[in-house]
Amino acid sequence: MGVDSTPVFRMYLWNETKEYNGLHVGENLVRWVVRNIHQVTVWLTPPGIKSLTLAPYISDGPVLIMFTPTLSFQNYDMLREIALEYYNCQKHQSVSLLARYIAYHLEEKILQLKHLDIVCEKQKSKEENFNIPVQIINQPWNNSSFVKNRKQSKLGWADSICQLGANKQTISTTSLFADKDHLSANSLTKFYWQEICRRHLLSKPPKLNHISYQTPLDSTFTGLACQTNKTVTLLAMDSDENAHFADGLGVDLSRRKDHTAVVLFNANLELLHVLKREVSRQSLVQFLQDYTAGKLERFLRTEARKSRPINRYALPSTNTTNIIQLPEITTGTFQTIVLNNSQNVVVFYHSPYCAFCHGISYVYLTIARLMHNVPDLLFTRLDGESNDLPWEYTVHHYPSILFFPARRKAESRAFPTNLQLTVNNLAQFVLANLNVELRLLGMLDLCRRWNDKQSLDKRRDCIDEVRRSCLNSISDTLTNYRVVITRYPFSKNRHQTLQRLLHRLHYLKTLHLFLGTAHNETHLTVEFLKYFKTESDFNWTKTINRFHDEL
């Protein structure tokens, strides 16, 4: 054995032997064993508190986790068989035989469960067909008065005994009440099978497909872990006790057959893959082969928040229906809402674990409330922790605010990280990314901050600022009009451009004149849109599209 001194601790592995050289302390020995032991699969049982149980496996690279109930280990045995072949890099015959033995043992379990299903079904049918014998005696006057007044012989009790003695030679002794005796052989056998069936039904074992141990796995799968630099660690966890882990990965175990699911994720690359097919021997092998070949698509988590306490803003009104509700975007609705070309969309990325997100949410809600009358401008929220997006729409920190302009979704803007997130800064960020027409309406909406009588002067100053912006825009539009007339030759595009500029001039002139006489209006934006529609037979969608198409 080569032992020169004692005590000595050695670990005999498949192809090597390791010797412990540290202090003889129990905690150090446990760490040494855990660090050096070689396991193709590991059944993890997190303690239920904050711990580093998963950290060593996640930090090493990609991890495959099978969530399955502990009441039946058939799925885990299947994972062990697959893991032995997956890590059999040298293609040892002994390892393949061990994998086939596990498959044979699994096949025996499946056959036993099927036989037990048949036995329990027969036991159930026997109990359902059991009828208690009932005898009905016709005694219409068998009541208390009839029994009381009936004459009986004083020695009537001895008649049955005498009759029994007279027929003693013709009576044979049998166990008439064996079924009622709980200690009889029949009763004990019946109770045994009832208990077996009860435990079998309560355990709810998974309905695995029949496999043959005589059919080995695909030869190309043997040693797959060593063929590329994508070696996967194979783990298993109890799906009943650790369903919250699966929920965090976007998998609802309650909708999975037998509460069993398989996920594969790489924390370093932020990649997540989920086995969409039913968990079986063939599907699991194909899943690992597709991952090694790079054929798996990234799984995007999506979840809509059930509670909406901070994405609603009640206006100062007695009307309970006057509430601003910000749509909560998910992975499934991102395409239809945010990438809608006809709308300018502002997205607030937040996380339930981000305390600062809750702290500055009032700023975002304030701007959404003040500018909710601006047409084609939508303020939304997105829980980035529960909803995965394509890489081009993923942010690196929370909170983040992105602006997706209409008809120019590829030119999205992010709120600068070097600016403090205040009402004024956020308002300027939104206004700067709107076109001229909507920017003026947004500025007009912001003037509603001073609706009380004490702030009338500030309100007038704000409206005057909007009028000055109108004049500047009119001057710029006239300059562009002269440039098009003098520099561009006659063509269809030239005519269309001039028409758009004329529409803009008409819009700006109308807004400037309206603000000169509407200082006392409460909702200036709404009133102006009504006025402009009446004056010029206004079609807002058609006109705004013309503004967007401006060269």
Automatic annotation (TrEMBL):
What top-level branch of life does the organism fall under?
Answer: Eukaryota
- Matching InterPro entries: Thioredoxin-like_sf, Thioredoxin_dom-contain_11, Thioredoxin_domain
Q: SUPFAM superfamilies in the record, alphabetically?
A: Thioredoxin-like
Start and end of every Thioredoxin domain? Answer: 328-411
Protein's name according to its UniProt entry: Thioredoxin domain-containing protein
This chain's source organism reads Clastoptera arizonana
